[in-house]
Structures are given as structure tokens and as C-alpha cells.
């Protein structure tokens, strides 16, 4: 709904820096060299503090890196990391990480603890070089009083959102909307998720960035028809959005400005309970599957670390469900003004943590925890995909799915004509080529 998503960095950086300093001082007081963790996630300062409190023979310190994926390899005079934690690590063109297969074959780490599709996404050249830490899902929010309108208690499809939302649309005598249930154009990330899940499937394979051209066209066509069938045109959708532009997303539901709002799970579950107590949610699904957000958090051991065994010890500790439960309790006890969701800002990659422990901190999840069988298979993504997505994909999809007033008028006069006058693939290829020239990526 917002034109730009709020940042996931929710904690005060000064608080993070103060705790980081304490950790460094504590680590330096021990005889053993501390494990150095590079990350952009403030939560790991607290996790490291918990680790240190439980180990007398080992310690960890955290070094903040705004973009861990862009910080490798370390500079010539820079201290090497032992562990790197962050999103987009799986998209690096070079493999900077040690093989972790021995954690499963020799150290007793149980692969069945993980969501299998997440664990597989950490494979690099067939080796388990990254372990998934956390993930998020697209979440559809609505008033509890309207739950009866939905057919499933676990998830909802875009088709059902379209049908239910449009039934609440109202216009005045001037043709302006006084109520609009939902518009895909309100949230560019919703459009992206829909295209990805309907078979557009932007992916990276054998050094090539690929997508299904036919599915991309079909998805754009379907989105344009949604606007034409339900909301007149994109200008009408934008006018309604701008009317309440400075109203927080969550209040669109509590103030009955919309029937549905799409948010990421890490945003919804830390929203003000004053509003969320009257709300319910469903996971956005496609053919019975849930699309995992691209920014999965991974953890890997830097292959040139001088402390690979010690780093692996930290990984084994971190991937213990009981220890993650302690992390949840530890973070909950901090009573942050802006709370944090789950493990490292998302659902844990360990199913047991979500099914047994996360619901104790977030009881709204009871009966609706993401299931192993429901997660969609994840595609490999190219280097610098975060930049490609932000600068090319999302803006392109938003523009391509836009329906002008002229388009709408033409559709009325020629209802049998295709709403796609030109293939969106041609314009997308041009944008992609320009991005490649500008940034020199793949």
C-alpha cells in the first residue's frame, strides 16, 4: 500500500552499537579468539550475547555491515569474518563460503528440522554452503468480521481477493470511489508476487537470467483485467490511494477504507495490537502454495576463516530449536519500543521453532503456522538481484499492469480486443539491457 516499503531495520542503531561495544569488550577479555560475525541484522548482537553467556570457552562478536553481500571479499587490511549473515547471500557470483555438509554427516545437525525448500536454496554448486535462518510471507489482512467471506482458514488466492473486494466497491454520482475493496496497484510487491507465482518465475540458471514470456504476458493481462473489471482504471485506484496516502496501512482496515491490505509477515505481527486485535489474516497463495519472499536470511562460514571449527560450533548452537526458543524469550524480555518478529525478523527456518515456540510469543499464529508442504519451490536468483528487482522488475511490472483512462474507454468499445496491445516482454528486455549496461551485472 505504501509507495515505498518501510525498512526492516527496526531497532535503534545506537542501541545496537552500544551493545556491540559491550560484546567486543567481553570477547576481548577471553583467552580464545572470538568468532567474528558480519551482519546487517541488529538482532545478532543479542543472539551473540546469549551465546557468550552460555559458553565459557567460546565467544562471538558482531560487526555491522550495511550490505553483507557487497562486503565480500574483505579488504586487504580488514579483519576477516568467520560467519556472514544476511539476505541475498545466495545470489553472490563467487562462492565465499565453506562447505557445511559435515554438520549434517558428522556433527548431528538434522536436515529434517528445516523447511526442505529453504535448505535446498542454500546449495551452491551442489554443496550446502549456506544455512537458511529466517523467511517471510505475503500476508493478507482483513477485519475479523469478514472472515466468513473467505473459503479457507489458512490462505487466500488473488482470485478470491478480487471477487470479495470488488463486492464492496462504491462510487458517488460523479463516478469517484467512496469505497474500494482492494487494488493490486496499491502495492507493487503484491504485483511482483502475483507474477512470480503465476509462472513468470524470474530466475537464474547456468549464468542466464530467465523468465517465462508467455506467463509474464498472461499475468500482466490478468492484472489489467482486474483493474478494468473492478476499479475502472488505474487513475481511479491511484486517486483512492492518494486520498488516504498518509494513513498507515493497518488503519485502512480498522477505519474501513479497504477490505484487504497486503503486508509482509514481519510487518503485520509487530503492528500495534490496538488495531490488530480486531483483524485476521491469510497467507497469499497460488495453486495451494505460498511464495517465500526473496529476502531470505542466510548464514554461512567464510571459507578463508581461520576459525572454521569454532564458527561451525556457533552454527550448530544457533540451529538448535531449544536455543532459538531462548532467543525468542530473550528478545521478548527486552520490551523494545519497536518489537521484532520471530527469529532474525521472520519465521525460523526450523519448523519446530515456529510450530511449538513462536506461537507462544505470537499467539495469532496458532493454527496458521506455515507448513512444510505449503512453501513454493524457490528459484535461483542472479547476482545483484536486490538491485535488479528494485530498479527494474518492480517498476516495470507496475507500469505494465497500469490501465489508463484511454485503455479503459477502448476496452468498453472493443470488449473482444486483447487488453495487451503490445507484448510487455519487448519493453522489459530493453529495460534489462539498459540496467546491464549501467551496472555491468551478469
The geometry reads as globular
What is the overall number of helices?
Answer: 17
Give the N-to-C terminal Cα separation.
32 Å
What is the helix content?
A: 40-55%
Q: In terms of per-residue confidence, which ranges show pLDDT below 50 for 5 or more consecutive residues? A: 2-14
Radius of gyration: 23 Å
Output mean pLDDT: 88
The beta-strand count equals 17
**Main pleated sheet:** 6 strands, mixed
Biggest sheet, strands in spatial order?
2-1-3-16-6-17
* Main structural class: alpha+beta
Report the portion of residues in β strands: 5-15%
Description:
The chain starts with 12 loop residues before the first helix and ends with a helix. Helix 2 crosses helix 13 (321-333). It is of the alpha+beta class. A hairpin with a 2-residue loop joins strand 14 (279-286) and strand 15 (289-290). Strands 2-1-3-16-6-17 form a six-stranded mixed sheet. Strands 7, 8, 13, 14 and 15 form a five-stranded mixed sheet that branches. It has helices spanning 13-28, 43-54, 101-105, 116-120, 158-166, 188-200, 213-231, 234-243, 249-254, 265-268, 273-276, 308-318, 321-333, 351-361, 385-400, 405-413, 424-439; strands at residues 35-39, 60-64, 83-87, 123-124, 127-128, 131-135, 138-143, 155-157, 170-171, 177-179, 203-205, 208-210, 261-264, 279-286, 289-290, 297-301, 347-348.
